[in-house]
Amino acid sequence: AARWGADYVVPDLVSTKAQLLVCRHEPEIGGTTDVATRPEFAGRKRTVVLDGVPVTGWFTHDFTLAELKTLRAVERIPANRPHNTLYDGRWEIPTFEEVLRWQDEQTRKRGKQVWIYPETKHPTYFRKLGLGLEERVAKLLHKYGKDKRTSPVILQSFEPTSIQRLNKLVDNPLVVLLS
Fold first, then answer.
1. CA 44 to the chain's CA centroid
2. d(CA 159, CA 154)
3. Phi, psi (deg, nearest 5) at residue 157
4. Is the pLDDT of residue 2 over 80?
5. What is the 3-state secondary structure (H, E, C) of the chain?
6. Which of 137, 36, 162, 141 is CA-nearest to residue 88?
7. Is 42 exposed, middle or buried (0-12, 13-18, 19+ CB in 10 A)?
8. Dihedral over Cα of 117, 36, 72, 66: its sign
């Protein structure tokens, strides 16, 4: 996206078993990775209730980061985006920390600030599992000096409580998504 001139890159954040933040659209990774083709992970498939809805699949919080790094990304909706399937299998799951380092590298390379606009995904669900997202987000933003109002990071969530928690931890601009 940055190479094509996008001003913002939007990583969605979910947690691993060890409370590390990784970038995935949802905690269920059966549609966005090759996990379903991996026999060593077949026994991890299960059903959880996510936002009141039973969801069956493989979940980031059942994996270590090392295990997730063995998986490769695939196009989630190949019928809608067939061209994207050309990239199936090329990339691993990035961590939020890797994205923060990538942001700095791309800003230097391009001579133009690359902004990120991370979204906490299902933060109440993760909090109930003891895997709160907001504290991990804040810790990494503090570590990289990106926790200020003027930092090139805007935080977003569909859950107002996540934004309220982040508001106590960092000074970044915050957005509650409505639909």
1. 20
2. 15
3. -160, 155
4. no
5. CCCCCCCEECCEEEECCCCCEEECCCCECCCCECHHHCHHHHHHCEEEEECCEEEEECEHHHCCHHHHHCCCECCCCCCCCHHHHHHCCCCCCCEHHHHHHHHHHHHHHHCCCCEECCEECCHHHHHHCCCCCHHHHHHHHHHCCCCCCCCCECEEECCHHHHHHHHHHCCCCEEECCC
6. 36
7. exposed
8. positive
Q: What is the pLDDT of residue 144?
A: 98
- Exposure string (b/e) for 8-19, b if CB count within 10 Å is 16 or more? ebebbbbbbbeb
Structure tokens at 51: 């936002």
Residue with tokens 């969605």: 12
Query: Over the stretch 21-58, which tens digit does the pLDDT of each residue have?
Result: 999 999 999 999 999 999 999 999 999 999 999 999 99
- 150 CB-near residues (< 8 Å, 6+ apart): none
For the full predicted model, state whether its pTM sits above 0.85: yes
Q: Is the Cβ–Cβ distance between 16 and 68 less than 8 Å? A: yes
Amino acid identity for residue 80 in this structure: N
| Cα distance from N-terminal residue to C-terminal residue, the chain | 23
